[in-house]
Every structure is written in structure tokens, then in C-alpha cells.
Specification:
Number of domains: 1
CATH class: Alpha Beta
Order of helices and strands: EHEHEHHEHEHEEH
Number of strands: 7
Number of helices: 7
Helix content: 25-40%
Mean pLDDT: 93
Oligomer: single chain
CATH superfamily: Phosphoglycerate mutase-like
Largest sheet: 7 strands, mixed
Distance between the termini: 38 Å
Shape: globular
CATH topology: Rossmann fold
Strand order of the largest sheet: 3-2-4-1-6-7-5
Length: about 170
């Protein structure tokens, strides 16, 4: 049995955003007032828990970038960051690729969209906290953060190999 600490994957759904305005693309939708409130509660949670992220992979959509920008004060100042068009338009396989491509990362934050976030989280969770699994299966909340642990490196994740430790919901945990 290995004594190495587990790898951690943090999966964050962007905070709430409004519908696209006339002439605005879906990609360009910003957070709305509710989304800003969710990020405030998420930031307080991240500060309280003091998670140590090694890297971030974030969708290029405005609402995901804005969510990341608003939590940036509680992230390490020298965190490696990658923007990914694939997380905006791709399916669950794009999320697997983004995580597997983070060789050497022990704690990765992925910022993306539903329904892919929900499907990705549930596909990874072979075991987990029953409340977190129930929340994830009922619709991953905006501004929600899933925390999964894996016995091996993130570059080798596979369906059913993760342990869903927690799913933070800013509307319930604020």
C-alpha cells in the first residue's frame, strides 16, 4: 500500500449567470448578481478550508473566467493556469483530457460548465460521501465545488476511481 498522499481534483461549476442578451453569444454571458453572491460564499469557503491548488484549467467562457478571477485572491499567487476552449464546447471527454494532461499536478482546479461538470463528477465517483453524491446527481449547483481524491496521479484518472469527498453548494453552505 502506497504512503503517498492522494491526488485531489477540485471541480468548480461557474457561478450563476443570466441569459444571453440580444446580440450576445452564450460564450460571452457574464455572472449576474446571484452569481456574485455565490462567489462570495465560495471564496469564504476556500479561505476557511485553505486548499492548496497546484494548477487551474478554466474554460474560456466569460462566466468561468469571471468566477476564477473573483476567487483569485484565495489562490496561490504563482499557480499554473491554462485556458481551455475544449471545456466550453467539448463533452465529458474534454474534461478527462484536461485533467490527464496535467502531468505532475497533485491538486488541480477545473472550472467549467454543466451538464459536463455533473456528468464528469458522477463518472469519476466510484465511492463517496452520500450527501455529496446525492447533490451531484440532482443537478450540480452553480458555484458548486466537488472535491475528489484519487489513489494515483491525476494523469491516470479513470471512471469510477475517485472518492467524492465533498460537494460545496454556496446556496446551502453559505
Amino acid at each position: 500500500m502506497s504512503s503517498a498522499p492522494p491526488s485531489r481534483l477540485y471541480i468548480l461549476r461557474h457561478a450563476h449567470s443570466g441569459w444571453a442578451r440580444p446580440g450576445e453569444s452564450d460564450h460571452d454571458r457574464p455572472l449576474d448578481a446571484r452569481g456574485h453572491e455565490e462567489v462570495g460564499r465560495l471564496t469564504a469557503y476556500l479561505r476557511r478550508e485553505a486548499f492548496a491548488f497546484d494548477a487551474v484549467v478554466c474554460s474560456t467562457a466569460v462566466r468561468t473566467r469571471e468566477t476564477l478571477d473573483l476567487i483569485r485572491p484565495v489562490l496561490p499567487t504563482e499557480i499554473a493556469e491554462q485556458n481551455s476552449d475544449a471545456l466550453y464546447g467539448g463533452g465529458v471527454s474534454a474534461y478527462f483530457d484536461a485533467v490527464r494532461g496535467s502531468a505532475g499536478t497533485k491538486a488541480l482546479l477545473v472550472v467549467g460548465h454543466n451538464p459536463m461538470i455533473e456528468e464528469f463528477t458522477l463518472s469519476l465517483a466510484g465511492t463517496g460521501d452520500s450527501a455529496a453524491l446525492a447533490t451531484a446527481s440532482q443537478g450540480f449547483p452553480t458555484g458548486g465545488l466537488a472535491i475528489l481524491e484519487f489513489p494515483g496521479p491525476l494523469s491516470e484518472i479513470a471512471a469510477g476511481t475517485g472518492d467524492l469527498r465533498r460537494l460545496f453548494d454556496p446556496d446551502e453552505d453559505g
